[in-house]
Design brief:
The complex is a heterodimer of chains A (about 220) and B (about 500). Chain A is mostly beta strands. Chain A is built from 2 helices and 16 strands. In chain A, the strands form 4 sheets. Chain A has a 4-stranded antiparallel beta sheet with strand order 4-2-6-7, with no helix packed on it. In chain A, strands 9, 12, 15 and 16 form a 4-stranded mixed beta sheet that branches. Helices cover about 0% and strands about 45% of the residues of chain B. Chain B contains no helices and 36 strands. Classes of the chains: A mainly beta (about 220), B mainly beta (about 500). Strand 3 of chain A pairs antiparallel with strand 31 of chain B, so a sheet runs across the interface.
Chain lengths: ~220, ~500
């Protein structure tokens, strides 16, 4: 971690210098995004959310530069959690308990310190589950929702809507329960309808798994029922 | 010998004829009366004695000048004859004297005309017949135009049944030429020709007036004569000019306007205006369009335009017009401009926040879609108008920041953006508190709008409603986030 702060300090102006550039009521969070090996992570999407507050509105993603540096401007003074993601390389949104358990670190912007620095580390990489969700009877593509949670911590969960050709990130080295919902279909549990019993999915960091999911249409209710 | 009195001045003798009394013994006897004599060139028009001819298809009087035309008053009914009584009908002389006879005539078409076809005129009295006969020439009169119907004309227009009225057009259809109005033409309609009128179709050159509001054209009718080619009298002409036909500049017209790409925010888009009278015309486009290049012809104008994000848009939203160099304006032609129209859900993630055991949050990702083409839109500024109600937690409400319209709109990069709904920790109690829907009042309503800089209005793209509780979030009726593909419309 010490190494990280050195990287940040080396790439930033001093807070005092920047304070003169911004209105009193807003601040700036600057920092660096690093991967699991503490190397600068370029093109990561970084954003800030009010800590202990209301999340409402457009998420203002900023991209880290080639050195991993980012700057989130025009933030009202307050306390924030800073998150990042780079999903195409296997780094999911770390603001969910599902991907990163535990309270995230906070950054505070105040009138005396409207510019703050932080480091956001991503990784290890998630596992990647890809495939197609189809109607088991017709083969037609079906949009659906994954509901996933840690086997031993149900509130570490995530529901995500996907198109038929899906790609979801699975936290690594964790037993994950996975089910798929779609209107008009029976709920699908990993590893599938035909399995003797449902079980958790566990992927290693960066592991990729292809999984075709065929959803069974719900049968119409019998007459009189 | 000519008519008159003769006096003997010597002992010479003369043969004289006499009728009447000797007036004076000292007066010599008068001449003897003989056959009538017509002076050379002695047949003229009665009203214009310098005119030794008449015209086809006319009536009037000729005068015959000579001697003994009334046989010295002994024959007051001299007979005047012509070699073509069929086409030259002579009546009873209306005035007779020894030296002049006036005879009414009617000359009809078919008579031999021209300088090579004189007609013999003879006078016969009781004393004989004039010999040699004198000659009467018949020519074709110079045509004249009195009026032209359906004027003024407008450039680019076609007028059928235009009537040219006048005289001496001949019995053969004349030709009609128009000058001073570009390539304007007059086509004679077969079967409409008379000696006094002709009908035809006028096709006015679209560029007849050039850059002037109007011009005066000259219409020239050329007679085809009466069947023997036009036989012009001395000093006459086969042509009848009629100046002063007003030709007005045509208002340009627009038949079609196309725009590609037709999306707000496009630079270098191509607009094509099809119509008439477009050469040199000035195009007029809605506010927010800037023209960087203009080219084309009289029937097609091609513009390179930049379309500001703030341009009003929609199906058949917009109008183009042109004004000609002569100041004539076209009607307006409608065209379509596309812009952000609605949202479609492209992703949704909901789960417990980091470090939370009860509190959840939701991220919805939307793609902005074009209202007309239904395709994904590009980067645009957006804003929202959230209203939160019914706060039920024990703690004070948290502040809310959002992208206010015309204040701090956000940028939907690539037309996509992610909308967050939720609380961010388990701090809020009791469990399940927040902004519930209560008593028919939504906990939250929110409208997303397209918010281009400089626009006076924002365009609605999507309407959201639901609730945000510490342990649950509902958006448009979905409690686990909206399915991919869900349409969010204004």
């Amino acid at each position: 971690m010490w190494k990280c702060f050195l990287l940040v300090a080396g790439g930033m102006l001093s807070a005092a210098a920047i304070a003169d550039e911004v209105p009193a009521s807003v601040g700036i969070i600057r920092g660096v995004a690093l991967d699991e090996n503490l190397r600068p992570l370029a093109a990561a999407q970084v954003w800030a959310e009010p800590a202990d507050g209301l999340l409402r509105g457009m998420i203002n993603f900023v991209d880290s530069d080639a050195d991993g540096h980012f700057s989130i401007d025009h933030l009202p003074l307050g306390t924030y959690n800073v998150f990042a993601k780079k999903e195409d390389e296997g780094y999911p949104m770390i603001d969910f308990e599902f991907y990163r358990p535990g309270r995230p670190p906070t950054v505070t912007l105040s009138t005396s310190k409207p510019v703050a620095s932080t480091v956001v580390t991503l990784g290890p990489k998630a596992g990647t589950l890809t495939g197609a969700i189809t109607d088991a009877a017709t083969g037609a593509p079906v949009g659906a929702a994954f509901r996933m949670w840690h086997l031993n911590k149900e509130h570490a969960d995530l529901s995500t809507s996907v198109a038929s050709d899906y790609r979801v990130l699975i936290p690594p080295d964790v037993d994950v329960v996975l089910e798929v919902h779609a209107d008009g279909y029976e709920t699908w549990y990993y590893p599938g309808y035909g399995a003797a019993a449902s079980g958790p999915l566990r992927l290693r960091p960066g592991e990729r798994m292809s999984l075709g999911i065929k959803l069974q249409p719900k049968l119409p209710a019998p007459p009189g029922k | 010998m000519v008519d008159g009195a003769y006096y003997a001045s010597s002992s010479e003798t003369a043969d004289c004829s006499y009728y009447g009394e000797f007036l004076d013994a000292n007066q010599p006897p008068e001449q003897e009366i003989g056959a009538p004599v017509i002076n050379p060139g002695g047949v003229t028009d009665a009203l214009d004695t310098s005119m030794g001819w008449e015209y086809v298809d006319t009536s009037g009087y000729i005068s015959i000048w000579g001697l003994w035309l009334d046989a010295d008053k002994t024959d007051m009914n001299p007979q005047v004859t012509v070699d073509d009584p069929t086409h030259i009908q002579l009546g009873t002389p209306s005035y007779v004297s020894d030296g002049q006879i006036n005879v009414p005539f009617t000359i009809t078409a078919g008579v031999a005309t021209g300088g090579g076809s004189p007609h013999n005129i003879t006078v016969t009295t009781t004393y004989g017949t004039s010999e040699p006969p004198d000659e009467l020439y018949i020519y074709d009169a110079t045509p004249a135009i009195q009026s032209v119907s359906q004027t003024p004309w407008t450039a680019g227009s076609t007028y059928s049944g235009v009537t040219i009225s006048g005289s001496n057009f001949g019995t053969i259809c004349p030709s009609v030429a128009i000058s001073g109005a570009g390539a304007t033409t007059f086509t004679v309609t077969t079967g409409t020709c008379t000696n006094s009128s002709v009908q035809g179709t006028v096709r006015v050159d679209p560029n007849a007036t050039g850059s002037s509001p109007s011009v005066n054209a000259t219409l020239t009718l050329t007679s085809g004569g009466y069947g023997q080619g036009f036989q012009s009298a001395p000093g006459g002409s086969s042509q009848a000019p009629f100046p002063g036909v007003e030709v007005l500049a045509a208002a340009p017209t627009i038949t079609r306007v196309t725009l590609s790409p037709n999306v707000v925010g496009s630079n270098g888009a191509t607009m094509t205006i099809n119509g008439t009278g477009l050469s040199g015309a000035t195009p007029y486009l809605p506010s927010g369009f800037s023209i960087t290049k203009t080219s084309g012809s009289s029937t097609q104008m091609t513009l390179t335009v930049n379309i500001a994000l703030s341009v009003s848009y929609g199906t058949n939203c917009c109008y183009a017009s042109v004004q000609s160099a002569a100041g004539k304006s076209s009607g307006s032609a409608v065209f379509t401009v596309d812009g952000p129209g609605y949202l479609v859900v492209t992703g949704s993630s909901m789960g417990h926040c980091g470090g939370c055991s009860t509190t959840v949050k939701l991220f919805e990702t939307y793609q902005i879609m074009s209202g007309v083409s239904k395709t994904a839109f590009s980067t645009v500024p957006v804003c929202e108008t959230p209203v939160l109600s019914n706060w039920s937690c024990s703690q004070a409400q948290s502040g809310m920041t959002y992208n206010r319209c015309n204040v701090n709109p956000g940028t939907a990069t690539g037309g996509a953006f992610t909308d967050g709904w939720g609380l961010t920790s388990d701090t809020y109690t009791p469990v399940g508190c927040g902004y519930p829907t209560s008593g028919g009042s939504q906990g939250i309503t929110d409208e997303w709008l397209f918010n281009p800089a400089g626009a006076t209005v924002q365009w609605k793209m999507g309407n959201l409603y639901g609730y945000i509780l510490a342990n649950s979030v509902s958006i448009n009726g979905y409690v686990d986030g909206m399915p991919v593909g869900t349409l969010i419309e204004p």
